[in-house]
Design goal:
With 138 residues, the chain is of the alpha+beta class. It folds into two domains: 37 residues, no CATH class; 100 residues, no CATH class. The protein contains five helices and five strands; from the N terminus they run ααααβββββα. The protein has a three-stranded antiparallel sheet, with no helix packed on it. A hairpin with a 4-residue loop joins β1 and β2. The longest helix has 13 residues.
C-alpha cells in the first residue's frame, strides 16, 4: 500500500470493512476519502466513484475514449494481467455518462496536458496526470 504511506486517516478509512451486504461507500465516506487523498490522485478516485468503471477499464482508457462535449466515456477495452483486450462480454462495451462537474474537471486536466495518448496514473500521463505522456499499449 505504497500510495497510502504517511496518510494515516486515509489508511484507516480504506481498511475499514463495509457492513455485510453493502458494496459502496456513503457520500459522506466518499467525501472523506477524496479529501484525505493526495491531490494528484483525487480525480482518478472521483472518476472511479462517479462512473462505476472497473479499475482495468479505467487503466485502458485513452483520451479519445472520453467525449467531453457529450459527457460520455466510451468503454471499449480493458487491462487485464498485463495486456489490453476487449471487454469480456458484450455488456462490457458501453458508454457511461459523466456528470457536468467531472467533465469540466477532465477538460481542465486535458488542457494542461501535452499529448492526449492515454490514461494512467498521475505520474505517467493520461486524464489523471499533470503531463500528457502516452501510457503504452495505446
Amino acid at each position: 500500500m505504497q500510495l497510502l504511506r504517511g496518510h494515516d486517516s486515509l489508511s484507516v478509512l480504506l481498511l475499514q470493512r463495509l457492513p455485510l451486504g453493502r458494496k459502496a461507500l456513503t457520500e459522506e465516506e466518499l467525501g472523506k476519502l477524496l479529501k484525505a487523498l493526495p491531490a494528484e490522485w483525487r480525480l482518478l478516485f472521483d472518476f472511479l466513484a462517479a462512473t462505476g468503471l472497473r479499475i482495468g477499464e479505467v487503466i485502458a482508457l485513452r483520451w479519445q475514449d472520453i467525449d467531453l462535449s457529450r459527457r460520455r466515456v466510451h468503454v471499449r477495452r480493458r487491462y487485464y494481467r498485463g495486456t489490453f483486450a476487449s471487454p469480456k462480454s458484450k455488456y462490457g462495451r458501453r458508454d457511461v455518462p459523466l456528470t457536468s462537474r467531472l467533465a469540466q474537471e477532465l477538460e481542465l486536466r486535458w488542457m494542461l496536458e501535452d499529448d492526449v495518448g492515454g490514461w494512467s496514473s498521475p505520474r505517467r500521463g493520461g486524464p489523471c496526470s499533470t503531463r500528457r505522456t502516452s501510457c503504452g499499449g495505446s
